[in-house]
Amino acid sequence: MTPADLSLTVLHAVRRAVGEGALRAGTRVPERVGIERPRPGGSGDWATNAALQLAREAGMAPLGVAQVLRPRIAEAEGIERVEITGPGFLNITLADRSRHALVRDVLDKRERYGHGDALRGRAYRLVHPGDVRATVLAEAVRALLLAQGAHVHDERHDDPRHDARPRQDERHDERHDAHPHATRPETVTLRPLPVAHDVAALGPDAARWALLRPAAHDRALAPDGLLVQSEANPLFTVRYAHSRARALLRNAAQLGIAPAYEEDVAAPRLLAALGDHPAVLEAAARHRAPDRVARHMEATADAFLGFQHTVLPLGDEKPSAAHRSRLALAEAAGTVLAGGLALLGISAPDYL
C-alpha cells in the first residue's frame, strides 16, 4: 500500500464518519491528507495528522476526531492496526500482505512505479534563464511534473525580450490541450544558483548529478570525486546498487532461482524506501525539487546494499521461498533506482 493509497483510505474514513454523523454534518473533506513516516514517539509504518487537520471544522478536539477515524481506517484492507499518539496523530501499521502488494506493485509497474495523477488537470509553463544548470533543472522538473499527470508547455528562457504572456499560437494550444480539463498554465520560474565551473568534462551523467543533487538555491557540486568509483561518491553508490541488483538476478538465473515474493522479508529500511518512492516523486514534482529524488536514491541504495548479501544461498544452502522473496525485493530495489535515475536524466547501467 503506497502513501497515495493510504491517503485515499483516510479520506474514505472521513467521508464515512461524516455520512454516519460521527463528524459534524457539513465537515469539508480535504482533497488530500498528508501521509508521512512516524515522528519520534510514534509507531507503525505510516502516520497522518488528518485528525488535527479536521478538528477545527469538525468542532472537536483532534484527539476526538482521531478516535472517530481510528476504527474506520483499521477496517480497511491491508491495515493491521491503527494507534493514536500525541495530540491526535494516527499511526498506521500495514499487514504483511500489504508488503507483498508493495513489491508486486513495483514489479508490475517497473520504472513507472511512483508515477501518478496527483497533478492531472494542472498545466505549467517553465521559464528559466537558459544557462546550463537552469536548463538541466527544467528538464528534470518537466519529467517529474509529467510523471504526476501534469501538462507542461515547452520551456522558455526568462529573457526581458520575451513577453510573459503566451503567444497567439500558444493560446490556441492551451484551448486544445492534450489534457482537455487542464487549467490555464501556471508560469513557474526556475532560477537556480548558476554553476561556477565547467561540468562538461564530467560526462552527461555525472554532470547532471552535480547540477541536480544540491537544492536549486545551493551551489552545484564540485567536479572533484564525481568520477571516482568508490562509496565516497554517492552517484557511483546509487548506480552500483542498481548494477548489483541486476547481477543478483543474473546469478540467481544460473542457480535456477526466479524472483517471487512469497513470504515477508525482514528488510524494514529497504521496504520503507520502496514504499516512500511515490510520495517522494509527488513531493519533488509539487516543489519542483529533483534534489529530493536524488537524496531518496541515495537512501534506497544504502538500504539495498545493506541487504544484498542475504539474497542468494551461501555454500551448500538450498534455494528456498525466502531466497525467492529476497530476490524479488532486490529486483524491486533495482527497478526503483532505475526509475528514479531516469527521471533525473541519468543512465542506470546493468554493469559497472
What does this molecule look like?
The two termini are 33 Å apart. Helix 5 links the parallel strand 4 and strand 5. The radius of gyration is 23 Å and the shape is flat. With 352 residues, it is mainly alpha-helical. It has helices at residues 3-19, 50-58, 62-74, 96-109, 132-147, 168-175, 204-212, 234-254, 268-286, 290-305, 321-343; strands at 46-48, 79-85, 89-94, 123-128, 151-157, 186-189. The longest helix has 23 residues, at 321-343. Helices cover 47% and strands 9% of the residues. The chain has a 3-stranded antiparallel sheet with strand order 1-3-2. The protein has a 3-stranded parallel sheet with strand order 5-4-6, covered by helices on one side. It has 11 helices and 6 strands.
Short key terms for the protein model shown above:
6 strands; flat; mainly alpha; 352 residues; 3-stranded parallel β-sheet; 3-stranded antiparallel β-sheet; 9% strand
